[in-house]
Each structure stands twice: as C-alpha cells, then as structure tokens.
Amino acid sequence: MEAYNLTVKPWCSCLLLGLFAVITFLSSFANAETHYHEFVIQAKPVKRLCRIHNIITVNGQFPGPALEVRNGDSLVIKVVNSAQYNVTLHWHGIRQLRNPWADGPSYVTQCPIRPGATYTYRFTIINQEGTLWWHAHSEWLRATVYGPLNIHPRLGSPYPFSTPKQEYTLLLGEWFDRNPMDVLKQALFTGAAPNVSDAYTINGQPGDLYRCSSKETVRIPIESGETVLLRIVNSALNQELFFAIANHQMTVVGVDAAYTKPFTTRVIMIGPGQTTNVLLTADQPPAHYYIAARAYNTAMNAPFDNTTTTAILEYKSASCRTKKGQSSRPILPQLPAYNDTATATAFTAGIKSPSQVKVPTAIDENLFFTVGLGLNNCTRPNSPRCQGPNGTRFTASINNVSFVFPKTNSLMQAYYQGVPGIFTTDFPPVPPIQFNYTGNVNRGLWQPVPGTKLYKLKYGSKVQIVFQDTSIVTTEDHPIHLHGYSFYVVGSGFGNFNPSTDPAKFNFIDPPQRNTIGSNPGGWVAIRFVADNPGIWLLHCHIDSHLRWGLAMAFLVENGVGQSQSVIPPPVDLPQC
Ligand code: C2O
C-alpha cells in the first residue's frame, strides 16, 4: 500500500499540475474579450479659436472615442461613412498578423469606404501592451479623425512597474482653422508647401495661450504624493513636438506599445505617430502647473506653427485655495528651443528595451533607403501650379522613387486577385546613384521619378534598413512608420552612414522596439525586423505633407509555408474601388 502510494503520488500531482496548466491556458483565452463598436464618420460643428467649424468626426466626438482593451482581446469596429469624403481607418501600430485587410491605408490594403458605405474592421491584439492610436488614413482626414487605442495587460498580469493610481491619455494634435482637406487640396494645386496649423491641441483643446480657449483647457487632477500614468500620443499631422510639465520630472516606461527601461527626463520629444508612456509623481508643492507642448522643427527656412498648447496639472489640495482666489496663473515649463536637435537626439537615444532582446542577426536583406524632399521642375515656372521654390513643385521620395498611390484598385486587392498593371516589384534596395547625401547636392539629383514600386520580401527573411536623410531642399527629421511590424532601432548617427564603421556601434543588447522612428536631421537611423507578417505593408514618413508628396514605399511580404504563414482571405464586405 505504502509503495503503491509512493509511485502514484508523483503521477497524480503531475496530472493535477497539468490540469491546472490547461485550465490557466484556457482561461487566459476565456478572459479575452471581443469589443464591438460602431464608428459613424460624420460632420459636426465645434467651436475653436472663437469660431464655429464644421469638422469630420467619429460619432460627433473630437478627439474620437477611446478604445480600452487588453492584450489578447479582439475588436470589431463597424465604420459607417456618413461624411462627404472617402475614408478609411488605420489602427496605428497594431501588427495585424496575416490580416492586412484590417490595416486601413487607402489604396494600399483596401479601397476607401465611399460616402454612405460601411466596412467592418476585425482584428485581434497579439502580444502588444501600452499605447497605440487609430486615425483616418485617407488624405488629411486624420487632422480631426483620431483617438487612443490603449492596450492594458491581460487580466491578472501586472504592469512591470507599480500600478499607477490613475491613467490619462494626452493626444497632441494640430488644429487648422480652414478645412484640412482644402488646405491639402490647395497645396496639391499650387505645388507649394501647405499652410501651417493655427494651433496645437491637447485632447482637442488648444489651451490658455490661445484666443477664446481657456474655458475649455484640459485639466488633469492629481493627489499630492500619488503616481499616475500618462499615455502621450503625437497625433499632429505635420510636426514633431517637445512636451514638458512645469517643475516635474517624468519617468518614461513605454513607447509605441512596448515597455522600456525606465528613465527620468524633464522633456520628451515625440514625432507624429509615436506614443510615449510616462509615470508622473505629484511630488511638488500643491499648486497648478502647466503641461505644455510646442514644435521641434528641423526643416530649414520653412514656416512652422510656433505656438504652444497647454493643459493644467491640478493638485487637488490646491483647487480649494483657488476658490479663495489665492492661486495665480500656473507656471509654464521651460521647453527647448524649436531647433534643439541635441535635446531631441539625447532623449530618443535614452530609450532602451527593459532587458536583453533577440535582435535578428545574419541579415538576409540589407537595405539602404535615402529619404527626403525634392523639387519638380516646371515647363512654365510662372504657372499658378508651380508656386514651390523658384517656380517648382514640391515632391518627396525614397531612393529617388516618389511613391504614387494607385487610383483604380488597392495594392493588396490587386495582389490577392492577381490584377496586373497596378504596381511593380522593382523598388531599388539602394539609391540608384551614390552621392554625398548630406552635403551640397547637385541640382540634377533633386527631381525624383514617380512610381508605384514595391519591394518583395521572402517570408521570415531578416531585414535591416538604414534610413539616410538627404539635404535635398533641406535636411529634416522624418518620422518613418512601418505598417504591420515593430522593429528594433539598432543605431543612429549624423552625416552619411558609413557601412564599414557604423555597424560596429549597433546596439544588439537592448535596442528599443518601435513602429515609428525619426531619421536624424542630416543623419541616419538603422532598424531590424523579421518579415514574419505576410501581406503588403506601407512604409512612410508620418508627416502627412511628405506622405502625399511621395515619401513612401511598400513591402510585399510573400506567404510562407501553409495556412499559418499566409494572408487570411479578405472579408466579404471589403470595399471595392
Ligand atoms: Cu499612423 Cu500609415 O500611419
């Protein structure tokens, strides 16, 4: 009996343990939720800067509704287009594994949703935690059509830092007094740079430093001593931003829905498309402090919006005193100079993964992409259509190809259905001509060639891309965003990338994981990823004026072996062109 028991017990506990493992495994799925939403794209009058404007919104909300989900959850979002424009929505940073149909860029993974039509986006969040966001991805609709997509840890799993008392999302935006769609239209007609914005906003509000705005300034209440999580998103159309809170330090804990090694800073720089999560502790005398953001501008001789948006950090114990009229105007934080590249670069370089990560080595595809602006010469320089510098039209390119979006089909639909003539797959892996990219570039190299060229990647290939900014027209920080992927940022520098000395300095230990990274102005940045997501994925500058001028390309990642490595079939309601 004794012996029997001895032999049975370990087997028995093994079974119990196994059963327990199966139950936890299943319950982690049982806990995953599916969230259903209806997003009605519709015009709505809102008052900003003393005037009523009719803007395009989701469900009449500006900014749009916040999506709060957990890692592992699924989303089903029915989009009803009740506006007068074609529209698509993009879930910025969601990997959309094998599911390009839910990604959203207009004429890339889908044809636009026509006025009066609907389309339902269905996707699951797989191993991503932190802050992402969603936005319109056709023309300049994203100026007002955007909102947060906050991904919390699975039920029962904690943050890798002590749980904050509160969480606030701060969407930094750009406000145009004119209809943004008309601003773009005019720029595309004249060939000149589009008008700059009239205000920056925090959660849709310009704040105290603008006319007719202080009543609506966003207020963030905080209790003395407590720590809160701020999810900061740069949803501005065309501008990198500095962000700071008067008298307070912030601890960066995540970017682009990936955790980072915590580090403290007084100021953050955030490019369009990027997100930054910071912890903020109320460790200052109870009072009101301004939260502020303004431009980090790297383009030379280019006009930019130099105004400052503010919200107010309000210590709760200080608000009573305000009522007695003792409180004065909140203190403004010191923001870096508009062109403070040293501060911007130091901040970005401080972002690291929390611990050692598996960076792909033994690269299969070594790509070198020049990114920058250009000028198209006009035959009649005095024409109203040639109001760019010296009677030209602005353009932009990667490796001298200025990306042209198809008009009669989407790339993904053409690829899936085998429709010829929509794109070619001869995007050059290196620029057609080598030159001193950041030097004084010969005028003959300023005019790129238009084309709808894709670069083919084998499933599972290990890819390195070096983005090299050029000084054509101007050097500039271009926030490059890759759809369908996150990548490791392994290195960056100024001047021309040197393939024989720079790779030795790459960080293969703890590089940050991101979906959007700026090329240094007059410099370069290197990224690595494994092409494990089949489909067609857009890569572009997240400054929307540059995107429209052609600072984009797309990867065609081929299917691997079997269903689990292949693009899923398109949904039946996918819009046709
Ligand atoms: Cu957030 Cu292609 O964009």
Automatic annotation (TrEMBL):
<keyword id="KW-0479">Metal-binding</keyword>
<dbReference type="InterPro" id="IPR045087">
    <property type="entry name" value="Cu-oxidase_fam"/>
</dbReference>
<dbReference type="InterPro" id="IPR011706">
    <property type="entry name" value="Cu-oxidase_C"/>
</dbReference>
<dbReference type="GO" id="GO:0048046">
    <property type="term" value="C:apoplast"/>
</dbReference>
<dbReference type="InterPro" id="IPR034288">
    <property type="entry name" value="CuRO_1_LCC"/>
</dbReference>
<dbReference type="InterPro" id="IPR002355">
    <property type="entry name" value="Cu_oxidase_Cu_BS"/>
</dbReference>
<dbReference type="InterPro" id="IPR033138">
    <property type="entry name" value="Cu_oxidase_CS"/>
</dbReference>
<keyword id="KW-0677">Repeat</keyword>
<feature type="domain" description="Plastocyanin-like">
    <location>
        <begin position="167"/>
        <end position="317"/>
    </location>
</feature>
<protein>
    <recommendedName>
        <fullName>Laccase</fullName>
        <ecNumber>1.10.3.2</ecNumber>
    </recommendedName>
</protein>
<dbReference type="InterPro" id="IPR034289">
    <property type="entry name" value="CuRO_3_LCC"/>
</dbReference>
<dbReference type="InterPro" id="IPR008972">
    <property type="entry name" value="Cupredoxin"/>
</dbReference>
<keyword id="KW-0964">Secreted</keyword>
<feature type="domain" description="Plastocyanin-like">
    <location>
        <begin position="42"/>
        <end position="154"/>
    </location>
</feature>
<comment type="function">
    <text>Lignin degradation and detoxification of lignin-derived products.</text>
</comment>
<dbReference type="InterPro" id="IPR017761">
    <property type="entry name" value="Laccase"/>
</dbReference>
<keyword id="KW-0439">Lignin degradation</keyword>
<comment type="similarity">
    <text>Belongs to the multicopper oxidase family.</text>
</comment>
<dbReference type="Pfam" id="PF07732">
    <property type="entry name" value="Cu-oxidase_3"/>
</dbReference>
<dbReference type="GO" id="GO:0005507">
    <property type="term" value="F:copper ion binding"/>
</dbReference>
<keyword id="KW-0560">Oxidoreductase</keyword>
<dbReference type="Pfam" id="PF07731">
    <property type="entry name" value="Cu-oxidase_2"/>
</dbReference>
<keyword id="KW-0186">Copper</keyword>
<dbReference type="Pfam" id="PF00394">
    <property type="entry name" value="Cu-oxidase"/>
</dbReference>
<dbReference type="GO" id="GO:0046274">
    <property type="term" value="P:lignin catabolic process"/>
</dbReference>
<dbReference type="GO" id="GO:0052716">
    <property type="term" value="F:hydroquinone:oxygen oxidoreductase activity"/>
</dbReference>
<keyword id="KW-0052">Apoplast</keyword>
<dbReference type="InterPro" id="IPR034285">
    <property type="entry name" value="CuRO_2_LCC"/>
</dbReference>
<dbReference type="InterPro" id="IPR011707">
    <property type="entry name" value="Cu-oxidase-like_N"/>
</dbReference>
<dbReference type="InterPro" id="IPR001117">
    <property type="entry name" value="Cu-oxidase_2nd"/>
</dbReference>
<keyword id="KW-0325">Glycoprotein</keyword>
<feature type="domain" description="Plastocyanin-like">
    <location>
        <begin position="426"/>
        <end position="559"/>
    </location>
</feature>
